[in-house]
């Protein structure tokens, strides 16, 4: 799955919501805090982590690629 950037970056919580992998910002916060989300293969704990072109987010067996 791909998310096309409208700006220079998208925040991790927003990307999970935009991809439909979480139902709300609160749920995104919880799954990130619990260490269930990886960015470029590394567990990420910051909901506000900025994602740029080429970044790959993994959660619940799904991958999201960020594209410009």
Automatic annotation (TrEMBL):
This is RNA-binding S4 domain-containing protein. One of its GO terms (molecular function) is RNA binding. Keywords: RNA-binding. Pfam families: S4_2 (PF13275). It comes from Anaerosacchariphilus polymeriproducens. InterPro entries: S4_RNA-bd_sf. The keyword RNA-binding applies.
């Amino acid at each position: 799955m791909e998310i096309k950037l409208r700006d220079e970056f998208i925040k991790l919580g927003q990307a999970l919501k935009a991809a439909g992998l979480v139902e709300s910002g609160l749920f995104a916060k919880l799954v990130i805090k619990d260490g269930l989300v990886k960015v470029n293969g590394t567990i990420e704990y910051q909901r506000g982590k900025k994602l740029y072109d080429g970044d790959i987010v993994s959660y619940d067996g799904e991958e999201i690629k960020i594209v410009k």
